[in-house]
Amino acid sequence: MADGLILQIRDKNRRAVLQQTQRREAAAREHLTSKITDPDPNASSARADNSNMEWQPIATAPFDRDLELAVINYNGTHMFVFPCRRILGGWMKAETNTPIIVYPTHWREWHNPR
Which of 29, 79, 31 is nearest to 53 (CA)? Predict the structure, then answer.
């Protein structure tokens, strides 16, 4: 009986996290377009290959590859300086597999050789 209750609580918590993530992603999509190019002409050479790639809305981010993340808002484009991977309920640093608490709005392929 107690095991069933624990499983119900875990399932409810997972659903709540998923719903919160979906709400954040919907809000980001509402305020931003899905085809924003990198406005930073001084981007590092490590990311120069990405400068012609279009940013995609975070809701479409895949789970199976290294990604460059950004927060795009009224202040401009703020890119992460390390590759990330999407995991259930959030993100992790790709190089260390360490979960991180971030709220990106956009993504694109990471093409920086390691």
Answer: 79
pLDDT more than 70, % of the chain: 72
Residues 32, 69: contact at Cβ < 8 Å? Answer: no
- Return the domain boundaries, the chain: 2-109
Residue 104: left if φ>0, alpha if ψ -120 to 50, beta else—which one?
A: beta
Query: Nearest to residue 112, comparing CAs of 81, 87, 89?
Result: 81
First CA to last CA distance, the chain: 50
Per DSSP, helices labelled H in 1-114 are: 2-31
C-alpha torsion angle, residues 3, 90, 35, 94 (rounded to 10): -130
Cβ pair 61, 70 in contact under 8 A? no
- The structure tokens listed for 9 are 């609580």
Query: Mean pLDDT, to the nearest integer, of 58-78?
Result: 93
Neighbours of 94 (CB within 10 A): 16
What pTM does this model have? 0.54
